[in-house]
């Protein structure tokens, strides 16, 4: 089938590469000429395991084409995917300007029936706005062309995006038109062989499902972070509590890890956008507001712990940081907890030595001009000469470090573990001080 995807970011590129891998002819359109030039020259703009190979083999096979030519894209695909960003507006609402710009472009160039598939995360009612935008552009051309707008939210996780797309938990298709539902079902058939994962529903329910999923996951994290602060205050160990509650199948072990707050391009903005949507119709979503507030406080926690440990004397100190991306296996640093910490440390007069297995280029892009930041080629180099080590992102390679070497390299042998990934017994046995999230200080 012929497919066009607007937006070649984390979602658009993965969607395009996976649909091409299944044999479809895919055109990826982006407004960023540098990104398209990089993709056409065999490069890849993001770090996502397995993506480079998939993009390069399908590009070489001619099934995956990259272009900035929107008119060409609209002419190419029966399916017109919208996978552009929906960043938060100042009031927390989702900014739809990119989504509606694509809708207008489609209306300006389409001459035949098109299925417009909204993959971006958008508030309830956006499909109607997209349809109105397309209709207005068609009216301006004095033509009448049939089209459908489908909500098909994406549930992939950065770091496991290919696997999630190829073997999805569910494929949500929001449409009232049975003919369009069958077209989407056919497009997704290669990813739906084991058992039927396609869920056809009305458009508004599909749009809300995506926000509901992210808000639920964010709620689990904030709940555990709230509990970890209580555990610490009352002298309990949150890791024991976690195992204790996870054994109840109604609760389960997944996604109940305490830490230094959630970040990324989705949870923070989606929780805010859902709360904003509720407020706009006169409903105060108290739980969502609390989820966000708890997360904001948690993102400050590591800095508070470091500040307290040094009794506020941070000026002139150097702090080593392991992990800059908002979670492991990605280079994405949007709303990452590391950024909050680093900026607070600078504010307090401390310098930072940092390492991340994938996000060094992104850190360089964000903070490259800072004299109080040193990016090191590996984890141990970050520790050299630093006062303290802070683990912010739980990359696997940080989980069993050489404690003796860390102790030797640190001026003040202390580790702040923002993700509770280290074994406290081992850290303490190596003669290092250990401060983590909601755990007992001594095991
Ligand atoms: P991104 O910022 O990585 O990519 C968006 C791309 O769209 C950029 O390359 C940008 O240049 C391009 N773009 C902007 N306007 C355009 C236009 N008019 N025409 C063509 N291209 C245009 O964003 P992302 O992380 O891929 O997210 C896209 C959407 O998917 C968002 O709504 C997001 O909430 C949602 N989503 C993201 C994830 C994720 O893990 N990143 C997962 C599920 C859903």
Automatic annotation (TrEMBL):
Catalysed reactions, as listed in the record: UDP-alpha-D-glucose + 2 NAD(+) + H2O = UDP-alpha-D-glucuronate + 2 NADH + 3 H(+)
EC number(s) given by UniProt: 1.1.1.22
Alphabetic keyword roster: NAD, Oxidoreductase
Alphabetical list of Pfam families matching this protein: UDPG_MGDP_dh (PF00984), UDPG_MGDP_dh_C (PF03720), UDPG_MGDP_dh_N (PF03721)
Family: Belongs to the UDP-glucose/GDP-mannose dehydrogenase family.
PANTHER family associated with the record: UDP-GLUCOSE 6-DEHYDROGENASE TUAD (PTHR43750:SF3)
Single GO term (MF): oxidoreductase activity
Catalytic class of the enzyme: oxidoreductase
Protein name (record): UDP-glucose 6-dehydrogenase
Pathway: Nucleotide-sugar biosynthesis; UDP-alpha-D-glucuronate biosynthesis; UDP-alpha-D-glucuronate from UDP-alpha-D-glucose: step 1/1
SUPFAM superfamilies per record: 6-phosphogluconate dehydrogenase C-terminal domain-like (SSF48179), NAD(P)-binding Rossmann-fold domains (SSF51735), UDP-glucose/GDP-mannose dehydrogenase C-terminal domain (SSF52413)
Organism encoding this protein: Thioalkalicoccus limnaeus
Domain of life: Bacteria
């Amino acid at each position: 089938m012929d497919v066009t995807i607007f937006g070649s970011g984390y979602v658009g590129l993965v969607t395009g590469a996976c649909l091409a891998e299944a044999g479809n002819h895919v055109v990826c359109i982006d407004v960023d000429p540098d990104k398209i030039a990089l993709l056409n020259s065999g490069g890849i703009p993001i770090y996502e395991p397995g993506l480079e190979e998939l993009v390069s083999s399908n590009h070489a096979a001619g099934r995956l084409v990259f272009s900035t030519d929107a008119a060409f894209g609209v002419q190419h695909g029966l399916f017109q995917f919208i996978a552009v960003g929906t960043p938060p507006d100042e009031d927390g609402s989702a900014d739809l300007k990119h989504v509606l710009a694509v809708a207008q472009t489609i209306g300006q160039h389409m001459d035949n029936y098109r299925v417009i598939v909204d993959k971006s995360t958008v508030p309830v009612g956006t499909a109607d706005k997209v349809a109105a935008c397309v209709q207005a552009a068609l009216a301006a051309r004095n033509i009448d062309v049939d089209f459908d707008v489908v909500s098909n939210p994406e549930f992939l996780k950065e770091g496991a995006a290919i696997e999630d797309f190829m073997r999805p938990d569910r494929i949500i298709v929001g449409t009232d038109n049975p003919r369009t539902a069958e077209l989407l079902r056919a497009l997704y058939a290669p990813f739906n062989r084991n058992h039927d994962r396609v869920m056809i529903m009305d458009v508004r329910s599909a749009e809300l499902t995506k926000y509901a999923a992210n808000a639920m996951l964010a709620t689990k994290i904030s709940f555990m972070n709230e509990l970890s602060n209580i555990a610490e205050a009352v002298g309990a160990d949150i890791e024991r509590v976690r195992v204790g509650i996870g054994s109840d199948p109604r609760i389960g072990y997944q996604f109940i890890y305490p830490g230094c707050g959630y970040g990324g391009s989705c949870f923070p903005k989606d929780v805010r956008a859902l709360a904003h949507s509720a407020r706009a119709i006169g409903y105060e979503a108290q739980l969502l507001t609390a989820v966000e507030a708890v997360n904001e406080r948690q993102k400050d926690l590591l800095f508070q712990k470091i500040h307290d440990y040094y009794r506020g004397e941070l000026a002139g100190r150097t702090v080593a940081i392991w992990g800059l991306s908002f979670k492991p296996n990605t280079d994405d640093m949007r709303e990452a907890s590391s950024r909050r910490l680093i900026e607070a440390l600078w504010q307090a007069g401390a310098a930072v030595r940092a390492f991340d297995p994938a996000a060094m280029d992104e850190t360089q892009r964000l903070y490259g001009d800072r004299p109080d930041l040193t990016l090191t080629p590996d984890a141990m180099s970050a520790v050299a000469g630093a006062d303290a080590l802070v683990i912010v992102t739980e990359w696997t390679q940080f989980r069993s470090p050489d404690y003796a070497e860390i102790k030797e390299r640190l001026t003040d042998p202390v580790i702040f573990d923002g993700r509770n990934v280290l074994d406290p017994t081992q850290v303490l046995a190596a003669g290092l001080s250990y401060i983590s999230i909601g755990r007992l200080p001594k095991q």
